[in-house]
Design brief:
The chain has 240 residues and is mostly helical. It is 68% helix and 5% strand. β2 and β3 form a beta hairpin. α7 runs antiparallel to α8. The longest helix is centred in the last third of the chain and has 32 residues. The protein is globular, with a radius of gyration of 20 Å. It starts with a strand and ends with a strand.
């Protein structure tokens, strides 16, 4: 049975993921213009529309979260068992990413969007879910800051940058879009809101990809783990 090994580097994998994000973004922008500028409405548009859920962009984002969780698990297994505090935080971080993957796939945060409550809040908080999730982000920052500081300087900086990019998209542009719709500056179903949603999703994906890059660097360059993908081919099956 012939065998082949595929080796990748943090840079090459990041380029593949970033390229996928770019392609999805370009397709989505084209769809937004097709819908709102030319009045075209095709069923397959929903598959790539970042402003919709349960489609290819959602699946890709969920996969990015799960890749992060998987890489964190590899780091956790290799850590010195004597350092229980750091091991505990890596474990907690893994479960946080698993939760975020589930949330991305099932849109759990939408539960917090209560119509009656939304009308009582200022325009900037129209997307009610940003309140509990912003609190969660702050708690996470406080809890995981010692873990982040334990990373090599360059990786620490990139980790903080990845989180900032992700939150800028997930919370920052969510607030911006909802605020402009609430104040009547743009329409919910319009090209401006569609493009804001596109930037939001693209920033989220970019933040996750940068963090994947950091995790791979840590695994390969600092923990000295070896990651290989082995493919075994036979006439009647493929095993990965």
């Amino acid at each position: 049975m012939p065998k082949s090994k595929i080796k990748t580097t943090p840079g090459s994998l990041s380029k593949i993921l970033a390229g996928t994000t770019l392609i999805l973004t370009i397709i989505n922008v084209a769809i937004q213009f097709a819908i709102y500028s030319f009045g075209l409405k095709k069923e397959w548009f929903l598959l790539f529309n970042m402003d919709k859920e349960v489609n290819i962009p959602t699946l890709f984002s969920t996969t990015l979260f799960l890749i992060c969780a998987g890489l964190i698990s590899l780091i956790h297994k290799k850590l010195n068992k004597k350092n229980k505090a750091i091991r505990k935080k890596w474990s907690a971080l893994r479960w946080l990413f698993i939760f975020l993957a589930i949330d991305e796939g099932l849109q759990i945060h939408e539960v917090f969007i209560i119509p009656g409550l939304k009308d009582m809040l200022p325009a900037i908080l129209t997307s009610v879910w940003v309140i509990p999730y912003s609190i969660l982000a702050l708690i996470a920052l406080i809890y995981f800051i010692s873990l982040v500081k334990s990373l090599p300087n360059k990786l620490m900086e990139k980790t903080l940058l990845s989180g900032a990019i992700y939150l800028l998209g997930a919370i920052g542009f969510e607030i911006l879009g909802s605020f402009l719709v609430r104040t009547g500056d743009i329409r919910l179903h319009g090209i401006s809101y569609g493009l804001i949603s596109t930037i939001e999703e693209a920033l989220e994906m970019s933040g996750l990809i940068l963090f994947i890059h950091v995790l791979l660097k840590y695994i390969l360059n600092y923990q000295r783990q070896k990651l290989k993908i082995k493919l075994h081919f036979s006439s009647d099956q493929i095993i990965t």
